[in-house]
Amino acid sequence: MENVRDTFKEVAAAILPVTTVVILLQLIFIRIPFEALIQFLIGVAFVSVGFFLFLIGVNAGLLPIGEMIGRKLPSTKKVGFIIATGFLLGLVVTIAEPDVRILAKQIEETSEGTVSAPILIWSVSLGLAIFVALAMVRTIFRIPLHYLLFGGYTLVFLLSFFVPKDFIAISFDAGGVTTGPMAVPFILALGIGVASVLRLETENSGEKFGLIGLASIGPILAVMLLGVLFR
């Protein structure tokens, strides 16, 4: 019951400020039609219910199962299997990510179908999956995070000279949308689970994190490479 109450407070803290600002703008400045305001309030009600149920689901299902999988993987003592599992989970979670689908749909519409939504979704998903696998490598072999971040963003910088300007903007948006409500809880829990079993917490608790920051480089590079192909 306490978890439900805390979740309700989280939803209220997230939704009420936005709702208040929109209503104040309506009263003072923009004066949108009353019907549009009613539609907005109905939408707020649906979003609040959906957000509440989503957070309950994350806390009850996604986080525990992600961490349990992460804790079980090292017991196989098969490095290739751990890395492959990270890749597969990164792929399917990103395909299910609603933020990625929204971005892909908007890009398909603005490009008049030149860049189709399925191509973009698969490119982003593969990019993130590869870097989740790389994050597993980093955790297993205890590679310093800044080495991989420096190398990844160096590639991004160099590749930007060969990519059409439109794709540069799209690529960084793609890196942002992969840090959405589906990918972050599951992948972060997975990384924490693997790191905990490898007993990295006794050395440096920060080694459990950084996975999302590293993984978000993958979609940026993937969309840039897509831009080179479309050039």
Largest sheet: none
Poorly predicted parts: none
- Supply the number of helical segments: 10
Average pLDDT confidence is: 88
Q: Shape, please?
A: globular
Percentage beta strand: under 5%
| Cα Rg | 20 Å
* Sheet/helix structural class: mainly alpha
Secondary structure: helix percent: over 70%
Q: How many distinct beta strands?
A: 0
Q: Alpha-carbon distance between the termini? A: 55 Å
Order of helices and strands: HHHHHHHHHH
Describe the protein in words:
With 231 residues, the chain is an all-alpha fold. It is built from ten helices and no strands. α3 (79-95) packs antiparallel against α5 and α5 runs parallel beside α8.
List its traits.
mainly alpha; globular
Topology:
Elements: H1 2-30, H2 34-72, H3 79-95, H4 98-110, H5 117-141, H6 145-159, H7 165-177, H8 183-197, H9 211-215, H10 217-230
How would you briefly describe this protein structure?
With 231 residues, this protein is an all-alpha fold.
